[in-house]
Amino acid sequence: MTAFFSRFSRPFAALTSWRCSPEVNVSINLCRCVSLFVTMGKSDAKKTSKRKRGGDGEATEAEQGTAANNEPEATPKKPKSAEAGDQAGSGDADKKPWNLKLCSWNVNGVRAWLGKEGLEYLKKEQPDVFAIQETKCSDSKLPPEIKNVEGYNAYFLAGDQEGYSGVGLLTKIKPLDVKYGIGVDKHDKEGRVITAEYEKFYLVAVYVPNAGKKLVRLDYRMEWDQDFRAYLKELETKKPVVLCGDMNVAHQEIDLANPKTNKKNAGFTQEERDGFTTLLDAGFVDSFRHLYPDKKGAYTFWTYMMNARAKNVGWRLDYFILSNALERNISDSLIHSEVMGSDHCPVVLLLNI
Questions:
Q1: Is 286 annotated in the active site?
Q2: Distance between CA atoms of 219 and 242, rounded to whole angstroms?
Q3: Is 246 an active-site residue?
Q4: Backbone dihedral region of 71: left (phi > 0), alpha (psi from -120 to 50 degrees) or beta?
Q5: Would you write out the chain's pLDDT as a tens digit for each of its 353 residues?
Q6: Beta strands 241-246 and 284-286: pairing type?
Q7: Is 344 an active-site residue?
Q8: CA atoms within 13 A on the CB side of 44
Q9: What ranges does the record list as Low complexity composition bias (predicted)?
Q10: 153-157 vs 193-197, strand pairing mode
Q11: What is the pTM of this model?
């Protein structure tokens, strides 16, 4: 038996030529089967691994991401947005006839926005009219690339204070007339309103005053709301109105992520919300809520702090508001929350007019 165990420890090649009792041969054959089974198992495992890695031994992108982050996550995180995905709205615009596309975006500084390739969005989207707010740039310092966009007529209004407020309008359709301000000096010196007259409607691009930290400008905001509403109603005696821009108010609790903790903060005070309600009651319609009254998570502004955009902790401050007479002309109202370049995102209105 000592000789048996000594010879059994040699390679299997030696075993094949060694003769012993039938009992020992059974043991040897059993060892051979086990060895063959293990070898086949290793071979299959290698093939399976190779298939998972694309057949060439290289790890897939998902595997590389898992290895790098030590987390079982195959796809990168994207900012959350409204229920319809990155674009809040029906997503069925192609099914609804429209012949006019309007776009509005608070760019939070036109020079910084240009540096973030903001014009690429304009070139891709190709709206008929593109309104921007918070240009924060005097007319003399406007970059030529925003004043000379091919195919567009450009109009800008800056406030008296450099680096503050300011609005702009780029339009493929040359307006019949363009008016700056609303005719009230204390408001107009801040550069907040451009009005373009078209054949069938007025388009008013606005950057509404913010009530400020600790609501230091809330009283002024209330004066503004009243005077601005009167201006819109005066226009409406001649033609219907399309109002777009940063209204600096979340109208309803559904229009911001944290309503309970913001009731005493600028943009969600009862006074500002009531002012918005009064505007709608005067004969105007919020195009987005008209189409999507119950849609949650549809925001247009996110603070740069606390990773708010990735968490979709936002506010809906940017609107398209129309005279009731144009309600039937609304084809869709969209929020392009996937578009970066500012702390706001663009909003789009499709009209059949």
A1: no
A2: 26
A3: yes
A4: beta
A5: 444 444 444 444 433 443 444 443 434 344 444 444 444 444 444 443 333 333 333 332 222 232 223 332 333 333 333 333 356 775 554 578 999 999 999 999 999 999 999 999 999 999 999 999 999 999 999 999 999 999 999 999 999 999 999 999 999 999 999 999 999 999 999 999 999 999 999 999 999 999 999 999 999 999 999 999 999 999 999 999 999 999 999 999 999 999 999 999 999 999 999 999 999 999 999 999 999 999 999 999 999 999 999 999 999 999 999 999 999 999 999 999 999 999 999 999 999 99
A6: unpaired
A7: yes
A8: 6
A9: 62-71
A10: unpaired
A11: 0.75
Q: Per the residue annotation, which of 121, 155, 207, 299 is the catalytic one? A: 207
Q: What's the one-letter identity of residue 29?
A: N
CA 228 to chain centre: 29
The annotated binding site is made up of 106, 134, 246, 248, 343-344
Helix (H, G, I), strand (E, B) or coil at 311: helix
Q: Which of 187, 251, 336, 344 is catalytic?
A: 344
**Three-state secondary-structure class, residue 216:** coil
- Which residues sit in the known binding site for Mg(2+)? 106, 134, 246, 248, 343-344
Return the half-sphere exposure (C-beta side, CA atoms, 13 A cut-off) of residue 339: 25
Place of tokens 């996937």: 338
Question: Which DSSP helix (H) or strand (E) runs through 246?
Answer: strand 241-246
Instruction: Give CA–CA dist 235/215, Å, rounded.
Output: 30
**Residue 224: its H or E element:** helix 218-236
Domains of the chain: 2-69 (no CATH), 87-351 (3.60.10.10)
